[in-house]
Amino acid sequence: MYTMATKRYLNPAYNIILKFGVPGGTLMQAIDAVAQITDKDPTRVYRWMRPKEKGGTGGFIPRSSQNKLYDYARKKHLPLDAADFFGKRSVVDLICGA
């Protein structure tokens, strides 16, 4: 399913969002940066890290935003790989819907 990054935030969204923050910065600064890159409201970005039963996406970033973040990371040489968006689930799990 999803993995807990902390008691409150889900991966892979949490780990990806943090990559767009400044070293020593806050989570809110990283959320604001991602919101600006993706042209989304910060509350929408925050919901990517929340469980589905609490109105979030279960730790997953929508595809349209994935593309924007990936392109931005490539241009800025940030350590982000396309596989980061899928967490630790295997390809078999993704294909089988597990």
Q: Which secondary structure elements does this structure contain, and how are they paired or packed?
A:
Elements: E1 3-4, E2 10-11, H1 13-19, H2 27-38, H3 42-47, H4 63-76, H5 91-96
Antiparallel strand pairs: 1-2
Structural class: mainly alpha
In order across it, which strands form the biggest sheet? 1-2
What oligomeric state is this?
A: single chain
Radius of gyration: 13 Å
Described by strand count, sense and barrel closure, the largest sheet is: 2 strands, antiparallel
Quantity of strands, as a count: 2
**Helical residues, percent:** 40-55%
Regions with little confidence, pLDDT below 50 for 5+ residues: none
Number of helices: 5
Indicate the proportion of strand residues: under 5%
Assign an overall shape: globular
> Gap between N and C termini, in Å?
8 Å
The chain-level mean pLDDT equals 86
Compressed to H and E, one letter per element, the order equals: EEHHHHH
